[in-house]
From TrEMBL:
SUPFAM superfamilies: Xylose isomerase-like. One of its GO terms (molecular function) is metal ion binding. The keyword Electron transport does not apply. One of its GO terms (biological process) is rhamnose catabolic process. It comes from the Bacteria. This is L-rhamnose isomerase.
Amino acid sequence: MVDRQAVTTALAQQRIELPSWAFGNSGTRFKVFTQPGVPRDPFEKVADAGQVHAFTGVAPSIALHIPWDSVEDWAKLGQAASDAGISLGTVNANVFQDDDYKLGSVTNPDPRVRRKALDHLLACVDVMDQTGSRDLKLWFSDGTNYPGQDDIRARQDRLAEALAAVYARLGASQRLILEYKLFEPAFYTMDVPDWGTAYAHCLTLGEKAKVCVDTGHHAPGTNIEFIVAVLQRAGKLGAFDFNSRFYADDDLIVGAADPFQLFRILFEVTAAGGLAASSEITFMLDQCHNIEPKIPGQIRSVMNVQEATAKALLVDVDALGAAQRAGDILGANAVLMDAYNTDVRPLLAELRQSQGLDPDPMGAYARSGYAERIVADRTGGQQAGWGA
Ligand SMILES: [Mn+2]
């Protein structure tokens, strides 16, 4: 039997971190469509993120991207976050937008460029000291386009050296979260292409190094929940970057392309205790809202994660275990599918009402007038966007 009260309690405690870049303008390499009311600075991004939390109740932190979100006074940004009802979260480093990094950042054959990249990563830890952030998220665009272009093993050595230097700089409660990606921008080799490479580096580094699973960073058909289960079992699953994809790294709204996959992933997470208070897994969105409005896009995304989590929690694990032990293939599958096919929207509406929230976050945001207000107020200045 599923304990409904336990499900509700777990859902009430779930935390989903929002990416600051989801609120800025974004697009493809073909066109960035600007939207009125988009934030012009990190303070306005923080204010928008606060709206998502205000209507969902489960998104109390915003991840930052350095240098896009760099400010002179971090305490002031922290205060703005606090005023908006949220806090500053994961710090994402950026070593992929400088001409120097054409041949790589920390894996570049030129030691001067490697030093420059490492200095940026270390500066990001300085920022974390000021913002109180726990996690430093590292994604490297490093790789090669042509066979023979560079020495694959030497690049791994350079990567390991940089990671070790960053790891040594971490404070006692800070973590290094290493993200992998199959391809793009490099097309022949990426230096951290998969969970195995990320895991191997994190294992060498130590306890404070964990892997980030970005759901859009795998080959089509990859069984992501298997990766999640293996990493979690090894104590190396540090974070999720949630988004969904039809083709490659589409960065679409999580749960939009394949809600069943999201359910399967979250079932592995919840079954292994990933929602417990002691869990070290950060649930983050990593998305861009290129054509849809951004704040409602984030609210919808948070709701999609909540719905998949609710279904995962509704799996009758006792019945599942009994069916598995009896070798009852169809019975076991039916237990899982029963949970997946449950309409959890009434349960979540009830939960929100019990927390003093509107049961319908999308509608409540639309009625709040915030969207109209930011369009009227945010005139002049340069809108924030991917890369600024
Ligand atoms: Mn990501």
